[in-house]
Amino acid sequence: MKLFVISLILVALVLTAAFRSFNRNPEFPQLSKPLPRMKNPRLVVKKKDRRLKLYDGEKLIKNYEIALGFAPDGNKEKQGDGKTPEGEFYIFTKNDKSKFYLSLGISYPNIEDAERGLKAKLITKAQRDEIVRAFQNKKTPLQNTALGGEIYIHGGGSANDWTWGCIALKNEEIKELFDAVTVGVIVKIEP
User: Fold this and answer.
1) Is 35 in contact with 54 (CB distance < 8 Å)?
2) pLDDT tens-digit profile of 118-138?
3) CA gap 188, 89 in Å, rounded
C-alpha cells in the first residue's frame, strides 16, 4: 500500500511539473481565470499608451498591453498604410480559426471613414452607401476597398508594433477577451 501511495505522489509531482512547463511555453496560451460576467462591456483603446481597456459600463475590468500597426501614428487613411484606425466601432465577428490564434473583427471602415474616403475619391458613392448601411445595421462593412479593412483585435504578441493596422495582444489575453465579449460590443479607438 505504501508503494502505491508513493507512486501516486510521484505521478502527481511529474504531472504538476509538466503542466507548469506547458503553461510557460509561449506557443501555448496560459490558463487564466475567466473574467466576470458583464452587463455592458465596452473596449477603449489608447493608442499612445499601447493599452486596451475592458469596461463594464464605467467600471474598469481589465487593462491590457497591446501592439498596433507598424506605422501607428495618426488615423488609418488607406489600405496598406500600417496605421491602426481611430474612432468608434463595434465587434462584428468572432473568429476562432484566426491566423493569429483568436480574433475579434472591428467594424472598420465606419461612417466617418466612408465619408472621408468618398471625398478623397478612394471609394465610390455605392461603396460609401454600402459601408453606411452596414454600420447602421451593425453588420460587416466592406472589407476590401482602398480604405483598407480586416482590422482585428487578435493574438500574436504585444512586444512591439508589428501588425498591418490591427491590435495585438498576448495569446492568453486574447483568449480571455474573446471569451468575455460578444458581437456588437462597442470599441472606441483613441489616439
Assistant:
1) yes
2) 999 999 999 999 999 999 999
3) 6
CATH class of residue range 40-108+148-190? mainly beta
pTM of the model: 0.82
pLDDT digits (tens, 9 = 90+) for 4-39: 444 444 444 444 444 443 443 444 444 557 888 899
Report residue 102 as a C-alpha cell. Answer: 483568436
The DSSP annotation for 148-190 comes to: ---EEEE-S--SS--BSS-EE--HHHHHHHHHH--TT-EEEEE
What are the sequence ranges of the domains in the chain? Answer: 40-108+148-190
Average pLDDT over residues 99-103: 96
Nearest CA to 123 among 88, 77, 189? Answer: 77
> What is the rounded distance in angstroms from the CA atom of residue 87 to the CA atom of residue 110?
8
